[in-house]
Write a structure and sequence with these properties.
mainly beta, 16-stranded antiparallel beta barrel, 5 helices
Length: about 425
């Protein structure tokens, strides 16, 4: 059965590569591209959603840059003459090698896995916005994420205040430029926990707050006051009893390579309520991470290299606080990750290899590792096929769990 499965995957990959190698390049691109009049490759490195230096500059300036699109202008008014929107979809098939004969062990079509309407861009000369409206169900709201960067430039430095809310982007959703998985939405491969230390330790949570950012082409500083998801039965009556998030990164260009080196710190606690009607509920948000990336050329082929280490603290013994990053063990949850992606057909096809070494914090059987093989193909600049195959190892998988120790994901990721 394993040989048949391997042969099937090989034939499937070969079929798609053969068919799509004859599809011409397309310039049909979504929301921000409509506003700027530029192709997707102007802002993305190898493929979306990973950013290149120009994409980072566009984001740094609060999505306000405008190009070919017309403007409506007047006193204290400067907006595009069209409201720019994109439909984002992920259609996935996932297969694990477990023995339950149900769910992904049997093979599961997730159509859609994600479906969202993104509306965003310039709201004025110094303010932009990004709204994500998603398919809602009984576990999530249709209002997924929103941010409104207010940006002023002083001597080449962009200073911004960014109020935001997100259902799963975490405190870093307010502002982030690196592609290491420092924020959930900005990564290279679909398997985020298998390729990013920050994602493995659980930093992708619901969050509301305001980010204060200073940024230029050499780096950025993000200081954020934020609150995690409101506990069941609680309310958003936190006053200024909020958690803190600090992000510092250097982003120079060295010898034709875009370099990123930085650190992240999640600190403090958020206190919800404190009255006779609503007793105080405290959420502990303590973690830290360091990361680095290099994006450039290896001969004629683009190459991206990404590395990270992360540590999410456990609560103190006997504490009644909620752990904001889901670490219910008595020890810190830690991980380091490495990922390389090579563009074997520039602007078309890439292959990737990643490894994440994790410790889930459990008293025993805590070693939780993942090796990821990845491949992506751009049918057009805004339609991507991606294949991830993850092999899990470590004593967390000994004996082999019923859910298996391998995961294969085939995904159509499109933005219209």
């Amino acid at each position: 059965m394993q040989k048949v499965r391997t042969l099937f995957l090989s034939v499937l990959i070969g079929f798609f590569m053969l068919v799509f190698s004859y599809v011409p390049d397309a310039m049909a691109v979504p929301a921000f591209a409509r506003q700027t009049g530029m192709a997707c490759t102007a802002c993305h490195f190898q493929h979306f959603p990973a950013l290149n230096a120009f994409g980072a500059t566009f984001k740094m300036n609060g999505y306000t840059m405008i190009g070919a699109e017309g403007k409506i202008e007047g006193e204290n008014l400067s907006i595009p003459d069209t409201l720019n929107a994109s439909l984002i979809t992920k259609l996935r098939f996932q297969k694990t090698n477990g023995t339950t004969k149900a769910g992904t062990d049997k093979g599961e079509f997730q159509i859609p896995d994600e479906g969202a309407l993104l509306i965003g861009g310039r709201a004025g000369e110094h303010i932009g916005f990004l709204l994500e409206v998603q398919l809602a169900d009984n576990t999530k709201s249709a209002f997924a994420s929103f941010k409104a960067p207010i940006v002023y430039n002083f001597g080449g430095v962009a200073l911004s205040a960014i109020p935001f809310t997100t259902d799963e982007g975490g405190a870093s959703y307010g502002f982030e430029l690196l592609n290491t998985g420092a924020t959930r939405m900005q990564r290279v491969l679909e398997d985020r926990k298998g390729t990013s230390a920050q994602q493995y330790i659980g930093t992708a949570t619901a969050a509301k707050g305001i980010a204060f950012v200073a940024a230029n082409s050499m780096g950025f500083l993000n200081a954020t006051l934020w609150a995690p998801e409101v506990p069941a039965g609680g309310s958003m009556d936190t006053s200024l009893n909020l958690s803190q998030y600090l992000r510092v990164a250097a982003t120079p260009q060295l010898g034709g390579w875009g370099i990123g080196v930085g650190g992240q710190y999640w600190g403090g606690k958020t206190e919800f309520g404190d009255s006779a009607a609503i007793p105080a509920q405290v959420v502990n948000t303590k973690a830290w991470a360091v990361d680095a990336q290099a994006q450039g050329q290896a001969g004629p082929m683009p190459l991206g290299l990404y590395a990270a280490y992360g540590n999410a603290a456990a609560n103190d013994p006997g504490s009644l606080e909620t752990n904001g990053f889901g670490n219910t063990s008595s020890n810190s949850k830690t991980a380091w990750s490495l990922l390389a992606e090579l563009g074997v057909l520039p602007d078309k096809a890439s292959v990737a290899l990643g490894y994440r070494s994790g410790n889930n914090g459990a008293a025993t059987n805590s070693n939780d590792n993942a090796a990821v093989l990845g491949a992506s193909y751009l049918m057009t600049q805004n339609v991507q096929f991606q294949l991830n195959h993850t092999l899990y190892s470590g004593d967390a998988y000994s004996p082999k769990p019923a859910g298996g120790d391998q995961l294969t994901t085939f995904m159509l990721f499109a933005a219209f």
